Amino acid sequence: MNIYFSCSITGGRQDQEAYAAIVDYLLQQGHEVPTAHLSQPDIMDLEKVVTPLDIYQRDVNWVTGCEALIAEVSTPSHGVGYEIALANFFQKPVLCCYRTGKTVSKMITGNPSPLQKVISYQSLTELVAQVELFLLELRDNH
């Protein structure tokens, strides 16, 4: 399955370990993750050589071409919100994950779409288990 992974880049990298756990799991399961590089610690160096227009066009194409979007939303990000909205617009299943205790935008938590699921997690093990459950539900519904 082609899965778009979304996370905060410029807003902070304190959740990089969670990003890596999600992407590593997806790749181990054989999924295509065009944004896998976002989980790398040196992403700021990688992305600064790409123009904003190039990033916009690339990411819009990746979102429209994906089968599902998984977003780690513990750190607020304009880009992540934009990508979630774009996935919602194109009727893509979306999983939004955040660390328990973090405040998440009510635009995310209040979305009543049956295609969007929002979960909190306390550990990386719980996070990966929730991602696995989301993917199983997707597979069973298709």
What would you note in describing this structure?
The protein has about 140 residues and is an alpha/beta fold. It has one domain (about 5-140): Rossmann fold (3-Layer(aba) Sandwich). The protein contains six helices and four strands, in the order βαααβαβαβα. It has a four-stranded parallel sheet, with helices on both faces.
Distance between the termini: 12 Å
Order of helices and strands: EHHHEHEHEH
What is the CATH domain class? Alpha Beta
- Stretches with pLDDT under 50, minimum 5 residues: none
Tally of extended strands?
4
Quick one: biggest sheet?
4 strands, parallel
CATH architecture: 3-Layer(aba) Sandwich
Shape: globular
Instruction: Enter the CATH topology name.
Output: Rossmann fold
Mean pLDDT: 92
Radius of gyration: 14 Å
Q: How is the largest sheet built, in terms of strand order?
A: 1-2-3-4
Number of helices: 6
Alpha-beta classification: alpha/beta
Share of residues in helices: 40-55%
Q: Count up the domains.
A: 1
- Content of β-strand: 5-15%
Concise description?
The chain is of the alpha/beta class. It is built from six helices and four strands.
Question: What key attributes describe this structure?
Answer:
alpha/beta, 15% strand, 4-stranded parallel β-sheet, Rossmann fold, globular, 6 helices, 142 residues, 4 strands
